[in-house]
Amino acid sequence: MTRKERLMATLRGEYVDRPPVNFYEIGGFIVDPTDNDPYNVYNSASWQPVLKLAEESTDLIRMMSPVRKNSHLSWEKIEQNDTLHKHVNFEYRETEDCKFTKICYSLGKKRLTTVSKREKHLDTVWITEPLIKTRDDVITYLDLPDDILSEHIDINPLIEQEKILGDRGIVMVDTEDPLCAAAGLFEMQDFALFAYTEKDLCNKLIEKHAKYINKRTEKVAKEFPGRLWRIYGPEYAIPPLLPVGLFEEYVVQYDAPIIDTIQRYGGYARVHCHGNVKEVLPAIANMGADAIDPLEPPGQGNIELLEARQQYGDKMVLFGNIEVSDVESLPPEKFRKLVRKAINEGTSGRGRGFVLMPSSSPFGRDLSQQTVDNYKIMVEEVNN
């Protein structure tokens, strides 16, 4: 089977010659190792063997957004529109090792400010000052015109990437859910307190984001049908951050319609949720999700892969269940045993499908040789 055929057959619950193996962000993000930009960690020599391995030997799933050039750096740049220009001011500054983006939203005399930081040696964006800090800030944000969140939706880059990939893999539409968009405006602990004590106001905030996310989903699902999607954000409403009872209110209420839209046009919805998912897996399955990731083992998560396969494997493709910390820290002989266990449990009995995949990927400039060797083991074991 080609890598594309293998992935699509897995999503459909059909026979495959071997379980797919995917490195998540490695091979998922579109990166340029020849770009000498000092903020491009992937031009480091230590990254080259893993990038090459992903492109040549894994079942590639490109993670792409129809509204952002780089989905994983979505906080760094916001596209201007007329309403945005009227209410938002951007400031940029750079030091020797970092660059900062300050965004100020204004509504009359009221101001909301957020600051993000990007470091040269890390491929991520840190929010150093959240936009919403108080209950009054929530009221101000809700009063901002909805047009401030309008988007330019373009599926042409996704179509072009499919052509580039050919039979080596598939494009996955990457989208936040309304909960993620709302929760990301706060410090995490502040959001948890707000979501628990201000449910009506929290729902209004989530609904504000649901409007444009639902519009985006409908347009992209219709124009780019039959593809895999990743929906991220449900982890903001699972224990220990919030009690299980709020998962229905903050996730199912908003994500079930997104899943329905994707599937109405022949697509596949994969729910991304780190952490303690055991108690919310019934709700995720009942939403009709086609797949879930990363199904972290106890320690970071709270359910064994074998249990998840037995209880939900007939309904959902299971993506996981390798911790990236194990990729980086375990000696190869121990890591190989972990990978074999995951493959055995993920493919045991009858089920829709399993994809061997880590929970995320390293994001620093330098990879150890042990990390490189452990990625090689993942490829070796699925081919044994």
Please characterize this protein's 3D structure:
With 384 residues, this protein is of the alpha/beta class. The protein has one domain (3-75, 132-382): TIM Barrel. The chain contains 14 helices and 11 strands. It has helices at 3-12, 48-57, 82-87, 135-143, 156-165, 178-183, 188-197, 199-223, 245-264, 281-286, 305-312, 324-329, 332-346, 369-382, and strands at residues 60-64, 88-94, 98-107, 110-119, 125-129, 169-176, 228-232, 268-272, 291-293, 317-322, 354-358. A 7-stranded parallel sheet has the order 1-6-7-8-9-10-11. The two termini are 16 Å apart. The relative contact order is 0.13.
Question: SSE layout and pairings?
Answer:
Elements: H1 3-12, H2 48-57, E1 60-64, H3 82-87, E2 88-94, E3 98-107, E4 110-119, E5 125-129, H4 135-143, H5 156-165, E6 169-176, H6 178-183, H7 188-197, H8 199-223, E7 228-232, H9 245-264, E8 268-272, H10 281-286, E9 291-293, H11 305-312, E10 317-322, H12 324-329, H13 332-346, E11 354-358, H14 369-382
Parallel strand pairs: 1-6, 6-7, 7-8, 8-9, 9-10, 10-11
Antiparallel strand pairs: 2-3, 3-4, 4-5
Compact overview of the structure:
The protein is 40% helix and 18% strand. It has helices at residues 3-12, 48-57, 82-87, 135-143, 156-165, 178-183, 188-197, 199-223, 245-264, 281-286, 305-312, 324-329, 332-346, 369-382, and strands spanning 60-64, 88-94, 98-107, 110-119, 125-129, 169-176, 228-232, 268-272, 291-293, 317-322, 354-358.
